[in-house]
Specification:
Order of helices and strands: EEEEEEEHEEEEEE
Number of strands: 13
Shape: elongated
Helix content: under 10%
Strand order of the largest sheet: 1-4-7-8-9-10-11-13
Distance between the termini: 9 Å
Number of helices: 1
Strand content: over 45%
Structural class: mainly beta
CATH class: Mainly Beta
CATH architecture: Beta Barrel
Length: 168
Amino acid sequence: MKYRIIPERSRLWALARSSLHPIQVETGAVGGFIDAQMAGEGLDLSFPTRSEIEVPSQDLKTGNFLYDRELARQLEVSRYPVVRGVLTAVSGLGGQRYQVRARLLLHGVEHELEAAATLSQAHGQTLLVEGEQTIDMRDFALNPPRLLMLQVYPEVRVRMRIVADAEG
């Protein structure tokens, strides 16, 4: 069954540490799909599960004009307008927990990541997927920015909350 991600109910957060304070990037501009076969409370792993998630680079915002301008400059949003994740593998960890592997395309660089995620189903028509992973921005040809006295560290914790409704 194909599920369409609902941007208004989905969210991506990225938390970077700096020499002065944490910097949080947040967006609800999360789109894409999940194609999965459900069995009871979880995935039926005997069927292939596919998913693609896209976030427009320009929608990654901190709420601080200076930080947002530097983030857009670093990400080169006109050159690389979309951050894309494509699911490559999923395996069960027990209960509603799964190990997922995905290719992440960020700033023109593709890198494979693994993370644990939880998946739950509401009323047979809505999926809720939540996961978290720390990435190193240098893996994506991004240099940790310096703004005046502020030094941003390269490790960024990324969390996603995906809500998707069944199509049709």
